[in-house]
Amino acid sequence: MSSVQTVTPGQRIGSTADVKAGPGTYVRAGQVYATVVGEVVTSTKKAKGDKGESKIIQVSGKRAAAAVPVIGSVVTGRVKRINSRMAVVAIQLVGSATVKEEFEGVIRVENVRATERDKVQIPTSFRPGDVVRAEVLSLGEAHSYILSTARNDLGVIFAQSAAGSTMVPISWMEMQCPTTGAIEYRKVCQIESAASE
Q: What is the per-residue pLDDT across 124-147, written as a single tens digit (0 to 9) for each?
């Protein structure tokens, strides 16, 4: 009848013209995006004081088959901690498959960007709690991997501001809080344009 759609954080799943955002989603520029790994669930609810029904889209968390990072694979994870030389990432996805056991990845300062590597600073590229997409460069030590965000399609895909709002990318190196208007620096992942048709 209907196919199951598995999504990852930052993936566009609908338009606010067609559906309302539910749990596991956020809205940006009139588009609904996933905030968690899981399956898309659409339900209808009768609107109060209205005879029509509203469609609500949400993402339910999913446990998939075990996945293990390999060299060259694209992974998604959450930044656990940072220092001046690296960001430590808890890998949660390999491609679109979730991992069963925790793998740790390290993004070194020289692997953040492909250009101007000498000007890169980890605190202006990543913050703890950010969700990042990165490529596995090599196997590190003790269950850890060396990661890189030195491509346009890699970097921060989800971040929260100090006010608790979902940050909106405004350039390849800046994100803005829609609540306070504060701008924070990040190594932003280039996400498909919501306006492209």
A: 899 999 999 999 999 877 668 999
Phi, psi of 64 (to 5 degrees): -105, 180
Compute CA distances 5 → 49, 59, 62, 182, whole Å: 32, 10, 11, 34
The pLDDT, as a whole number, for residue 142 is 66
Residue 131 φ then ψ, to 5°: -100, 125
d(CA 9, CA 56): 18
164: left (phi > 0), else alpha (psi -120 to 50), else beta? left
Give me 48's structure tokens: 């109060």
Instruction: Report the sign of the C-alpha dihedral through residues 53, 58, 63, 66, in that order.
Output: positive
pTM for this prediction: 0.64
Instruction: Give the whole-angstrom CA distance, residue 57 versus residue 53.
Output: 13
Identity (one letter) of the amino acid at 81? R
E strand segments, the chain: 6-7, 12-15, 20-21, 25-28, 31-34, 38-46, 53-61, 74-82, 86-94, 97-108, 131-139, 144-148, 155-158, 168-171, 174-176, 183-185
